[in-house]
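Predict the 3D structure for this chain.
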Amino acid sequence: MQPENVNPNDKRTERLTLGEKQRRLELCLTSAGLGIWTYNIATDEFWANDRAKHLHGHEPHEVHTFAEAGANIHPEDRDRAQVAIAEAIQTCSKLQLEYRVVWRDGSIRWLASQAEFVPLGEPGKGMFHGSVQDISDRLRLEGDRKRHEAALGRVIN
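Done. Predicted structure below.
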């Protein structure tokens, strides 16, 4: 049911509706701590929101390519990340990857990135649409829980 004062054919109303959708999306992304990104592998076009860039240890103005975005991936995780990306492209499947990034101050953060690869015509051509989230605190808490469970087990036995 449309409110009486809204004309569904009015382009201004349509834009307001899109604006409201954008605000809702931004609220969801911010609340979840998610960054979002897209990457066209054929044209090497890359876009990421400021949060995705920040999570990778970059300033908003610094990243313009997919390679630049991944420059801070921990050296021990780079090969695994490249293999996962290549596999997602080859099999047209989803990308799910947990990896470390090294920030300028030397701190290490764990990120989880999920993306969908959408083929565009020829094999190997397409786009990734993805999200990224900092999971460092979750992994730290899981480690703490395991250590506490082990300590409790030693006390009980």
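The first strand starts at residue 34 and ends at 40.
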